[in-house]
């Protein structure tokens, strides 16, 4: 959810190399502009407030889970509870995966990464049932070549935090996404990305963390989420969770 301190030069190089490495790509086959709304990690307000807003608009989102954060207060935020996971799943939203302990993929080798992901999947199954986590998001947006290769073959999609829209040939190991975060960019910049996606019939993934009247640096206000949904609907974008959007956007069928 929250940025790591500036790393050593080698970390910057590893991130840059990972961006150019594309172990798995898929082609866009749909010409319908699409929006996916994501909540990373996630603070409880993403469900109690953000979920209510999605419900009122009749749309579904994607909630990325880090099992170890369950029932905790992390970086000043009250995090999700297991009852929230069940409610999210029962309402039809997508439960998705990060690392179990929210550790950067630059800080673990393949075996530790695999163990962390397996622990996260077990955590969700223990508390929700037989739910397969098909989508992954890099904690802190940190991808390495090793993690990208492994994750692109483990999940249907893997999402980063590099701002942009997904169009044409999609890098399934590091989908582009735009942060709806009060500390990073004004809403008008997010709106511009949404309109660009609509004009080009692309897929835009928008992510945030907490949803509160006085959000964290990495969260948004309720009115920001409301406004995003209004802009997307007026622009004619269909709104789908990440895994559903991936299928709809890359399927040749109706």
What does this structure look like?
The mean pLDDT is 94. Helices cover 39% and strands 16% of the residues. The termini are far apart. The protein has 254 residues and is α/β, with parallel strands linked by helices. It contains 9 helices and 12 strands. Helix 7 links the parallel strand 10 and strand 11. The protein has one domain: TIM Barrel (Alpha-Beta Barrel), CATH 3.20.20.
Please give a quick description of this structure.
The radius of gyration is 17 Å and the shape is globular. It has a single domain, classed as Glycoside hydrolase/deacetylase (TIM Barrel, Alpha-Beta Barrel), CATH 3.20.20. Helix content is 39%, strand content 16%.
List the helices and strands and how they pair.
Layout: H1 9-20, E1 25-27, E2 34-39, H2 45-48, H3 50-57, E3 62-65, E4 73-74, E5 77-78, H4 82-90, E6 94-97, H5 110-128, E7 135-137, H6 145-154, E8 157-159, E9 169-171, E10 178-179, H7 187-200, E11 203-208, H8 222-234, E12 238-239, H9 242-250
Parallel strand pairs: 2-3, 2-11, 2-12, 3-6, 7-8, 10-11
Antiparallel strand pairs: 1-9, 4-5
Helix pairs in contact: 3-8, 7-8
Shape: globular
Total number of strands:
12
Q: For the CA atoms, what is the radius of gyration?
A: 17 Å
The first-level CATH class is given as: Alpha Beta
Low-confidence stretches: none
Name the CATH architecture: Alpha-Beta Barrel
Number of domains: 1
